[in-house]
């Protein structure tokens, strides 16, 4: 498998403070790679270096086979960038913004118009096409921003926190667009501080904290890398809890909440077996829930601190 | 396509973008014409009567004396519009987008400069038209008009490249107001309204040596036939020097790391 992006020993400091402290990344072509981390971890700086906006202090970055330091023009020809702040021309209409991009990609008049019309439809902006972007909502602006990035049909796209501040509908739409792009063979480099986003979209995730990659792997690998899968049983009274705790060795009773945590992979067979074993005792189980570690747990386990925007625990009642 | 044709094509695209802004929000053009016209009315109305006392000389009517200075002020007001436009691009992040695209990097700033040149020259033409309606009587022949247009265009390039650099350097729009103040005030301490010979000590020295004075004197010589006292060379040198300084400064600012 060929690499779309590689970074080796990437370092960058601003004003004596190390923002990137020697990071190595590799992104396979045609996959979604997510750089996950809290605010200030160095995600935006990484994207800025990879998209030729900022020079690295040291280290090598190759994008689409070209060195960003020595051949930025070739890198720019292969990439599209949608940043955290929408980079649109507020004095033009949505359509004019897209046509501007078409002209800058030297698409030709007819082709440019066709492309702009397609993208306006695809991003649900056709009704607002002739309106000044200054009147657009935040979500519309972000959609236009991504549409502008797609005019040149880039094969590698950087998305820096593309859904931060979006309403749930726009967020789902953005996710859908990203999936469609990957299905077309585009490589996506996505930064996010939302764990569910990385989990839902990424083939591989690198967790960035204080300028260092603290873990990398598929979402499943990351989740497996930490302990914590268990079945949680809730009892009606303390007698039940005690009886169950005696029957199930290696479990952890919590008397204040009348719950018992039993280490388990949480699969259906394991849960049935567990309940069968309790069937022989007087313990009456009120409720069964399965807890699998989510990326929030992963993040906490790796860095010792929660993410900036922690999501609620992922609890599946079976 | 060669690098050169690509650069031309991208610059043309960026210039069209800038014109579109202007047509949609013509306030930039209107203020850069209306303010100089108001100043013209003010100076002709208030000081015209005092002309003899100003030392302007009896061979020239005050409006003929003052129009070259008003032309320079029109250019100065025009350049502040460019500083704001470049600053808007830079703070709204669209410059970041342009810089990640495979386009001629120079085109981003060239577009602003070319449209500023056209916009300001149109503004100057309108101001001269109003001045003629108010009694301005230029004596220039075709060659002198052309030369005056050339000097004015050079001045536009000088102030516009400086404005581009200021627009890139300022973190917020308010950061460009210092530049605006300087280029709008400098003509008052020049030969625009009163001959520097009438001013006192250090002000006189400043007025005689600052760049706007030779530029205004040159325009006055070309348009109204007053002896320009050999200022043409100084005027052209100032314009080219300032344009080059502004261009190099803007280029450094444009190439530096995006810092956000």
Q: So what's the overall shape of chain B?
A: elongated
The H-and-E topology of chain A, N to C, reads as EEEHEEHEHHHEHEHEEHEHEEHEHE
Shape of chain A: elongated
Largest interface between protein chains, with number of residues from each side: A-B, 32 and 27 residues
Q: Give the helix/strand class of chain A.
A: alpha/beta
* DSSP strand content of chain A: 25-35%
Q: What is the number of strand segments of chain A?
A: 15
The helix count of chain B comes to: 11
Number of helices of chain A: 11
Label this structure with key terms.
heterodimer; A: 318 residues; alpha/beta; six-stranded mixed sheet; five-stranded antiparallel sheet; 11 helices; 15 strands; 28% strand; B: 260 residues; mainly alpha
Walk me through the structure.
The complex is a heterodimer of chains A (318) and B (260). Chain A is of the alpha/beta class and 318 residues long. Chain A is built from 11 helices and 15 strands. In chain A, helix 3 crosses helix 4 (109-122) and helix 3 (94-104) packs parallel to helix 5 (138-150). The longest helix of chain A has 16 residues, at 168-183. The model of chain A is unreliable at 308-318 (pLDDT under 50). Chain B starts with a helix and ends in a 5-residue tail after the last helix. Chain B has helices at residues 3-24, 27-47, 51-54, 62-91, 94-99, 105-133, 142-169, 177-185, 201-209, 212-224, 232-255. In chain B, helix 2 runs antiparallel to helix 4 (62-91) and helix 4 (62-91) crosses helix 10. The mean pLDDT of chain B is 90. By secondary structure, chain B is mainly alpha-helical.
Helix-strand layout with pairing:
The complex is a heterodimer of chains A (318) and B (260).
Chain A: E1 3-14, E2 17-28, E3 32-36, H1 43-50, E4 58-63, E5 66-67, H2 72-78, E6 79-82, H3 94-104, H4 109-122, H5 138-150, E7 156-160, H6 168-183, E8 187-192, H7 195-201, E9 204-209, E10 212-217, H8 219-224, E11 230-235, H9 238-247, E12 252-254, E13 259-263, H10 268-279, E14 285-291, H11 295-303, E15 315-317
Helix pairs in contact in A: 3-4, 3-5
Chain B: H1 3-24, H2 27-47, H3 51-54, H4 62-91, H5 94-99, H6 105-133, H7 142-169, H8 177-185, H9 201-209, H10 212-224, H11 232-255
């Amino acid at each position: 498998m060929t690499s779309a992006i590689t970074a080796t020993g990437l370092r960058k400091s601003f004003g004596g403070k190390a923002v990137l402290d020697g990071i190595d990344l590799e992104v396979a072509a045609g996959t979604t790679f997510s750089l996950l981390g809290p605010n200030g971890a160095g995600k935006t700086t990484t994207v800025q270096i990879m998209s030729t906006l900022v020079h690295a202090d040291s280290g090598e970055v190759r994008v689409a086979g070209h060195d960003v330091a020595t051949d930025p023009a070739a890198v720019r020809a292969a990439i599209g960038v949608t940043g955290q702040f929408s980079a649109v021309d507020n004095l033009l209409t949505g359509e004019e913004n897209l046509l501007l991009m078409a002209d800058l990609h030297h698409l030709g008049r007819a082709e440019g118009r066709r492309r702009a019309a397609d993208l306006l439809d695809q991003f649900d902006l056709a009704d607002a096409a002739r309106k000044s972007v200054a009147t657009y909502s935040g979500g519309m602006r972000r959609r236009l921003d991504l549409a502008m990035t797609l005019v040149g049909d880039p094969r590698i796209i950087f998305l820096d926190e593309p859904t931060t501040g979006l309403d749930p509908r726009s967020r789902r739409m953005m996710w859908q667009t990203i999936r469609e792009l990957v299905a077309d063979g585009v490589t996506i480099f996505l930064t996010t501080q939302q764990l569910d986003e990385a989990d839902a979209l990424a083939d591989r995730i690198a967790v960035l904290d204080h300028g260092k990659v603290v873990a990398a792997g598929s979402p499943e690998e990351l989740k497996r890398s930490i302990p914590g899968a268990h079945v949680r049983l809730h009892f009606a009274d303390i007698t039940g809890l005690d009886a169950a705790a005696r029957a199930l060795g290696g479990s952890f009773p919590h008397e204040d909440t009348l719950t018992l945590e039993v280490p388990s992979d949480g699969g259906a067979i394991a849960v049935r077996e567990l309940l069968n074993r309790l069937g022989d005792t007087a313990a009456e189980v009120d409720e069964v829930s399965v807890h699998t570690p989510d990326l929030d747990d992963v993040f906490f386990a790796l860095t010792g601190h929660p993410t900036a925007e922690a999501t609620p625990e992922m609890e599946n009642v079976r | 396509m060669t690098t050169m044709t690509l650069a031309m094509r991208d610059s043309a695209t960026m210039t069209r973008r800038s014109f579109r802004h202007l047509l949609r929000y013509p306030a930039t053009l209107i203020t850069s014409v209306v303010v100089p016209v108001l100043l013209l009315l003010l100076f002709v109305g208030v000081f015209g009567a005092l002309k003899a006392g100003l030392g302007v000389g009896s061979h020239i009517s005050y409006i003929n004396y003052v129009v070259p200075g008003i032309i320079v002020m029109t250019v100065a007001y025009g350049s502040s519009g460019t500083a704001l436009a470049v600053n808007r691009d830079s703070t709204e992040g669209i410059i970041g987008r342009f810089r990640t695209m495979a386009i001629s990097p120079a085109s981003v700033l060239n577009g602003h400069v070319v449209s500023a040149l056209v916009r300001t020259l149109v503004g100057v033409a309108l101001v001269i038209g109003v001045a003629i309606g108010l009694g301005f009587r230029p004596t220039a022949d075709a060659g002198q008009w052309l030369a005056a247009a050339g000097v004015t265009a050079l001045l536009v390039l000088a102030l516009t490249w400086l404005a581009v650099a200021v627009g890139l350097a300022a973190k917020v729009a308010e950061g460009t107001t210092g530049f605006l103040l300087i280029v709008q005030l400098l003509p008052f301490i020049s030969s625009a309204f009163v001959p520097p010979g009438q001013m006192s000590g250090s002000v006189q020295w400043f007025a005689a040596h600052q760049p706007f004075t030779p530029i205004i004197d040159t325009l006055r010589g070309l348009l109204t036939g007053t002896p320009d006292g050999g200022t043409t060379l100084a005027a052209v040198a100032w314009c080219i020097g300032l344009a080059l300084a502004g261009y190099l400064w803007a280029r450094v600012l444009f190439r530096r790391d995006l810092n956000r």
